[in-house]
Amino acid sequence: MTSSGMLPLWRAAQVFRFASLLYAGAVQYRVNQYYAHRSLSWVVFALVLVWSGIAAVLYSTERRRRPIVIVEVVVTLVLMSSTLLVGPASYFQHHQVVPTSFWSTNAVVSVALLAGPWWGMASAAVVGLSALAICGQLTNISFDATLPILLAVGLALGYGSRVVRQAQERLEQAIRLEAATHERERLAREVHDTTLQVLAYVKRRGSEIGGATTELATLAGDQESALRRLLSRQAAGPLDTDGDLAAALQRALPADVTFSAPADPIRLPAATLSELVAAVSAALDNTARHAGPGARSFVLVEDLGGEVVVTVRDDGSGMPHGRLAEARAEGRLGVSSSIEGRLTALGGRAEVVTAPGEGTEWELTVPVKEGR
Amino acid sequence: MTTVMVVDDHPMWRDGVGRDLTEAGFEVVATADSVRSATERAAAVRPDVVLMDMHLPDGSGADATASVLQASPATRILVLSASSEREDVLEAVKAGASGYLVKSASAEELREAVTATADGQAIFTPGLAGLVLGEYRRMATAPADADNPAPTLTDRETDVLRFVAKGLSAKQIATRLGISHRTVENHVQASLRKLQLSNRVELARYAIEQGLD
Q1: Domain count within chain A
Q2: Do B167 and A193 touch (CB under 8 A)?
Q3: Residue B114: phi, psi to the nearest 5?
Q4: How is residue A238 annotated by DSSP?
Q5: Are residues A267 and A347 in the same domain?
Q6: Domain assignment present for A143
Q7: Are residues B99 and B34 in the same domain?
Q8: A241, burial (CB in 10 Å: exposed 0-12, middle 13-18, buried 19+)
Q9: Scanning A70, A355, B150, B210, which has the fewest C-beta atoms within 10 Å of its C-beta?
Q10: Which residue numbers delimit the DUF5931 domain (chain A) (predicted)?
């Protein structure tokens, strides 16, 4: 059990213990002249002091607290019962249990902190009813204010400790999750930088040598793309959160796209990130369909401060001038509306430059907050 | 014959690249698997070109680049890296590496790059252009330093770097801008040199401030 989040509450409870001790001491000093056994009452009060010291020390450090709480409840009940010996019974009929008095609340506080509101209220009922029984006041239960107050203390502190404990658990869970994500990213990087390189090398060499090794090259190539797909699928999660545009694009793009970006991360909100990645993918898909065989694709990311520009270029066959406008006029929207629509929705713009034999170049511009 | 040293802690990769280079007519005079061994061997054999990996057990590729250049100043360094290591590559280039090639490059591209590096050219791949462009923009927005003003790109250099980063060849860029192929090369070299010079000034100043000089 790691409940370090509870420690401040336990320490605060020891401050309360000290305050209640002052009160009990003042009561003892004022009323011990009415007791039948005055010296015995001082002995009992000394025991109250001793136990307070022990409990304060034990509770204020991180340890298993259940046995201490159990001992505390028993000690408190025993000290309360000693009232009967200190006597005379007639005196206590209209008074609280002495010399413990208000101090007995500490047992309820401890139980509530340890075990939550239900146990807190149960211990309040035990302590409160015992006090009434010892003083012979059980018949007066409806006029007694102590029991409801003890119940409220048990409920409030128990509930508070439960909230703190849950918050602590959630925090720990979040930390564990973050560590797991980091580890996943590290593994992906590792695999990317080592295993994938070797597979790429085997594929390259194998097909250069030719003959029987071509088959090995194909196998290595299949494994390489399978591993890449696995890595990008595994890393797809972080698109739900804000992140680095270059990293997100690199994961999403096919391996044969030449990618350029600044070294520093460009952090964008999750929604902007996923829309931009989708727009770039659409432009690349278009290249694959129309640019002709052997066309290569290039993606450049630039951070201009107030704007982020992503350029998607291919060196394929290009399109005749006005072909996109024509398609739009004919109501065939397709790729250009998919790309332009996404960028407009982000408050940005998409411009395309193309000519026959000159390839196609999309320039996607998104406004961003400066000083991200 | 051009002499080459291959620095990589991955034996399979090191041997494979070494074999490729030997077949292509280069002389592989040494291999190394750490910053330390790379520095010692560079001092001993003074290779023309070093192929440098970014992850070494005892330091980064930038560390290795700096210390190899100190041991053998005439050596030229070509960084070979996975594409996800942008920050490391930028540091290595600022430390004096004269080119950057992704590890997935073909044997043909590797041969051409080593030849060009040995000739003293910068290997300006689109990835490197994007990094350098981004670094100039970052320096332009960083707080000004009166003693060592950040280097800036001319408009023409910016245009050239953007074209390179978008995958245009030097010839295509020359045609688009109406300048000579040679001028394109000069713009590219100048952008890299200014960056490395500024980095050296920065390092020297740091050394003096720390009393290391």
Answers
A1: 3
A2: no
A3: -65, -45
A4: G
A5: yes
A6: yes
A7: yes
A8: exposed
A9: B210
A10: 7-169
